[in-house]
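User: Round two. Same drill as before: sequence, then structure, for each protein.

Assistant: Same drill it is. First protein:
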Amino acid sequence: MADSKQAIPLVGVVMGSKSDEALMQPALDMLKELGIAHEVSVMSAHRSPQKVREYALSARERGIEVIIAGAGAAAHLPGVLASWTILPIIGVPLPTSDLKGIDALLSIAQMPSGVPVASVGIDGAKNAALLAAEILGLKYDSIEKAYEEYRKKLAMG
């Protein structure tokens, strides 16, 4: 396995609006705690579709290995990202609508066959970061060890 101690971000955290930042903060905190280099971007599948396309197409060559995408309401962002890249996409349904995230959860979970998007629970940004750690831990020793330590602390209460 390789070591992940590098300045190049391995995880891209994307949100559809600056107002989603507080809801996505638990993912950023967990990535930092686990020592996983990451970048944060704000872009909308509806208001800036070209930016989303360019981000997804360039992510892999920039070193990104997993993308976490938070979105509310129709929650198209994770699916649109997945349509432009073969990197794993983890969708975070955000409770930003009158339906409190149920709409976003269903949108993310119902991706068409052939274009998968993993989904965590509503308001599950922290779990998205932990899932990213599990994926990256298959390749990077330091992430695997950090994640194992986190799980040991969790088990101790």
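Second protein:
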Amino acid sequence: MNILFATSEVYPLIKTGGLADVAASLPQALLKLGLNVKIVLPAYSSVLSQAEKVELKILSSITVLGREILLQQTRLPGTRVKVILVNIKEFSEREGNPYCGPDGNDWPDNHWRFYWFSLAVEAIAMNQAKLKWPVDIVHCNDWQTGLIPALLSEHASAPATVFTIHNLAYRGLFSHQIFSELNLPVSFWHHEKLEFYGQLSFMKGGLNFAQKITTVSPSYAEEIQTPEFGNGLDGLMRVRKTDLHGIINGIDMNEWNPNTDKCLTHKFSRKNIGGKLKGKLALQNQLGLEEKADTPLIGFIGRLVDQKGVDLILAQITLLLSKDCQLVFLGSGFPHYELALTNIAAQYPRKISVTIGYDEILAHRIEAASDMFLMPSLFEPCGLNQLYSLRYATLPIVHAVGGLKDTVFECTTSEPDELANGFVFHKPTTIELHHAICRALDAYKLPNVWKHLQQNAMNRDSSWEKSAQEYKAIYEDLAPDCLDKTT
């Protein structure tokens, strides 16, 4: 069974968030199950520079709507997964973020960029690119690929499509004028197709035209059918609920392994956790924090935006800093959040560290060295950082939504059970978050309880093995004629 996996980012070639991690690790897991998976990705300039170091060859050149598009192929570094690159100048001649310009605003031609990408994927899927690789399933991810199922719906012999929602809040919205500019079929301008309250929504292309829809956790699949989390699409989600599947994300257990992680100054394992404390002291030293082994270190890695609950953190951070704990932040986002955190760090340089931006090595070290990990998200489709944290015996403090609710559990009795692996609050308020942090700080003072919770955390299997089987079952349901090839 040949699976064309369409994504706008994949680690380590290009990454802005969790989609890149999923797009890297899920295809590898599917490959292990005997499926023939190829990723198709825009040929951003940074991707091409990395691909040249691995392998880069020309596959073909296709002409779509009078425009020539170059198709190249590389390999995902360190894997057997092949990556088809869609090379147009709007991708390959532009430095920086794949979606935003240097000013932080979306590229003004994003609609054209991802429309051309979608047309190229359509050509590959319909064998118009002459790659001698018949596609059985096209698996699309988030709004950047949402037009692909819509375009394929115009072909009688098109392969089946699966569309994965990683975050329904990003719907790929553009004006009616842009709909006209793209010269999409007039019939697509309908509320049961691409029209969304007078705007064009790329996301709706996937939601309306894909045969199957998946999202990244069972709880999020339920939540997006409600007005609170549906972002205006909850009605459509309820209509398509029989085709909607919530499959929890996995992580790359080799990439995130405290016993072999090359980013760490000190490695450790479930049987010998001593290296975690040494790594904590090393990180405190690196970031200029007071080097105290017995002071709880609380980590935060993520986008500094409303969704991540930054307001909840800021509203009680002064009170929190009056306690015996330290905080370390890594992330970027809204300027007012960045400024607020850096100002607080300047006032408490030995208790709080703030790094604006993203650093993969530092992210691994924060995950490994922290005692607790803060994820007070207002909504969280799946979340990966809590899974990384569990892997590194760093106990998550989370709001009970989406994938956080499905993966982190708090024991309500004095003795933790075998499921307890973190701390959970159920209402997105400052006081609820603060109480959860206090419960974590109190538990930290009880060595036997804390060790039990850490062992539970590290015992959790966060691999892709089970989830990949669920995706395989969906593919086989859509393309039963391929079953002989996969057995």
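The radius of gyration is 23 Å.

User: Perfect.
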